[in-house]
Here is the input.
Amino acid sequence: SWADEVWCVSDTVKQSLWAYAEQNKWEEILAHKTIITMDIPDQYEYMDDTLVKLITVRVNSILASNNLPA
Here is the structure.
């Protein structure tokens, strides 16, 4: 198993992940994974400082709400 959880920044990325999985015949594997969407809009450049900060805040918030270690 390659991951217990898959984190996506947006629903668009989640949909792309599923499409890729279907094309490569591993949607059955993905079906058993927890997929977490951070609801971050796709408006940032790669490694944008604001994006990195937003991801950090969202990840910590999601982990805290699920009582998981940050």
In short: The chain has a mean pLDDT of 89.
